[in-house]
Design a protein that fits this description.
Helix 4 (about 120-135) links the parallel strand 5 (about 105-110) and strand 6 (about 140-145). The longest helix is centred in the last third of the chain and has 27 residues, at about 445-470. The chain is about 35% helix and about 20% strand. It starts with a strand and ends with a helix. The protein has a seven-stranded parallel β-sheet, with helices on both faces. It has a six-stranded antiparallel β-sheet with strand order 14-19-18-17-16-15, covered by helices on one side. The protein has a two-stranded parallel sheet with strand order 7-10. It is globular, with a radius of gyration of 23 Å. It is α/β, with parallel strands linked by helices and about 475 residues long.
Amino acid sequence: MKILVTGGTGYIGKRIIPLLIEQGHTVICAVRGKLRTAKRYVEEENIQVVEVDFLNKDTLNNIPKDIDAAYYLIHSMSNSVSHFQQMENDCALNFKAIIEKTSCKQVIYLSGITNDTKLSKHLLSRKNVEKTLDSKKYALTVFKAGIIVGSGSSSFEIIRDLVEKLPVMVAPKWLNTKTQPIAIRDVLAFLMRSLGDERLYNTSYDIFGPEILTYKELLLQFAKSRNLKRTIITFPIMTPQLSSYWLYFVTSTSYKLARTLVNSMGVEIIGKPSTINELLDVKPMSYEEALKLAFLKIKQNSIVSSWKDSFASSRSRKRISTKYINVPKHGCFKDVKERTVLDEERTFAKICAIGGENGWYYGTTLWRIRGYIDKLFGGIGLRRGRTNKTSIETGDALDFWRVLLADDENKRLLLFAEMRLPGEAWLEFRVAKGKVYQRAVFRPKGLFGRLYWYSVLPFHGFIFNGMINKLANA
C-alpha cells in the first residue's frame, strides 16, 4: 500500500514510518521542510518526502494522487494559546480537501479522549477536528488516547522532570484528576493493525491502559520505579496561570504548552470500554510496564523520537528553511576561530555530542547561568537537552539551540538560537583539511541588539576559546 503520513517528523510520525516500511508499504512522508527530514528518510527507497504545509494551500498539490491510506498526526496545540483551535481546524479542512481528490480509501486520526461534557480548549479542538475530517469520499478511523507514556513523550518527560527534580512538591489540585495512561507501543499497535481493516471504517474508539490513576499516583509510581522518596502536597487555590508557571519553571516544557496541558489536566480522561482490544488483538500494558520499557530505551540510548525535537518545545515557531540555513554575511557580528586537529573523525564526533548531559566542554557554569536567565525572561533555557547522547539530526532540539544542519559527509554542524535574544544567532562547527572551524554569528535587532553583543563579548571570548581548544584536543 501507498501510505501518506502527516507529521512525519513528529513524535508519533517518526515511530510509525519505520514500522510501515518493515511491512513493505511505500510511505509518503509529508513535512513542512525537507531540510528537517531525517537523512534515513531521504536515503530509504520506499519513502518519498514531500514538502507540505497544511496551512498553505499552495503546497497541497505536492501530495500524490495515488495514495491508498493516510495517517493524520497533526496537532497545533502549542503554536499559540489563543489561535491553536483555528489553526487545527484550518489544517484539517485543507487536509480533507486535498485527500478527497486522491484515491485514498482510509484516513486514520489519532485524537484525545473527549468523553467529559466539560472539555478543555485543547480536547474540544481535537473533537472538532474529528468532525471536520469526516468525509463521504474516504473512511475515517479515529483512535482517542489518554496521556501517552514512552521514552521522549511529553507526558513521560514532564513527569520525569517533576519527580527527579523535586523531593517535595506543592502541587495544584488537578493532581487529583483521574486519567488512563497508555504506552506508546500500544498506541502504535492500534495505529498499525487498523490499517486497511474495513471493520474499522467510519468508527471511533477510545484506547487506554488497564488502570485508572490520578496524576498524583502517576508521579508517585514513577518515583517508586526510580527508587525515589517523594512527598506531594496539593494546594487547592493554585490558579491555572500559577500552575502553568510551575510546570514551565520546573520542567522542560514551553509556557504555551504548559498552559494547554494545565487546562486539559482539570478534565478526567477516562476511556469508554469497547471491543477494540479484542478486534485488533492488543493487550495494553500497565503504567509500570510502560515505564520500564521507556527507561530501557533511555538506558540503551535508543530513543526513536522526542517531543522536545518538535517546535512545540521552542519559544518561536521559525521554520527551518534556506532563510536560516544560509548564514547572513552582512550587518552581523562574528566570532570566528580555528585550530589544527590530529583526528578529524574524532573531533567531529565530539562536536556532534555537544550539549545536553555532555555539556558544552568549557564554561559549563556560564552556559547554565545563561540558561537560567533565558528561563526568567520567558525563554526555554537549557533543560530540553538532546534526544540522543552521541548522534544528532537536522531538526533536533539541542538545549536552547535548534539543529539547522547536521552533515556527516562534510563534517558540518549548524545551530540556530531559540533562546530569547535581541536578534538572531547562529553557531557553526566545521572540520576540514586538518582543522576545526568555529563560527558564532549574531544579527542584532536595533540598538539593544548591538548593546547586547558588546555586553557579552568578554564572556564569548572566554567560552569560545575554551570550547574550540577542547574540540581540537579530541
